[in-house]
Specification:
The chain has a single domain, classed as Orthogonal Bundle (Arc Repressor Mutant, subunit A), CATH 1.10.10. The protein is about 70% helix and about 0% strand. Helix 2 packs antiparallel against helix 3, helix 2 packs across helix 4 and helix 4 crosses helix 6. It is globular and about 50 Å long.
């Protein structure tokens, strides 16, 4: 994934223009997009070998398919959020970053990051009501 990010940055270097934000922020946005693309492509496919034994411990195949479907729907909805909300959500829930780290990366205050996360979660709750009902 790292090489993909740097390849995209190199290919699009002419698009970068200094607008008060450092080059690293632009590069990090490319990274966030690559992570989102990775998660989007990862959730939704379950490969099962024909005749494979399914262990009786742990989640069943059906449970795993349902979990992956929920995850795919959530990440798809996150992908539809406004750019700043999406970035905050990916950093918090995809990369498990702390609020302070997210604030530095996005160039915002901790309070602004908390607000972005709150608004993002509330928007997901509105857009995915049946998913919330399934989880409770």
């Amino acid at each position: 994934m790292t090489s993909e990010v740097f390849f995209k940055a190199l290919r699009n270097i002419k698009r970068y223009t200094y607008s008060g934000h450092p080059f690293s922020s632009w590069l990090y946005q490319i990274t966030l997009n690559a992570v989102a693309d990775h998660y989007r492509g990862q959730h939704g496919e379950v490969e099962l070998e024909e005749g494979a034994d399914v262990p009786s411990r742990g989640p069943s195949v059906v449970d795993e398919v349902v979990r992956r479907d929920r995850s795919r729907r959530v990440w798809s909805a996150i992908d539809q959020l406004p750019r700043q909300q999406r970035a905050a959500m990916v950093l918090k829930f995809g990369e498990d970053r702390k609020i302070e780290e997210i604030a530095v990366i996005l160039g915002k205050s901790s309070g602004a990051v908390k607000l972005l996360l709150h608004r993002g979660v509330e928007r997901l709750r509105r857009e995915l009501p049946q998913l919330e009902a399934e989880l409770t």
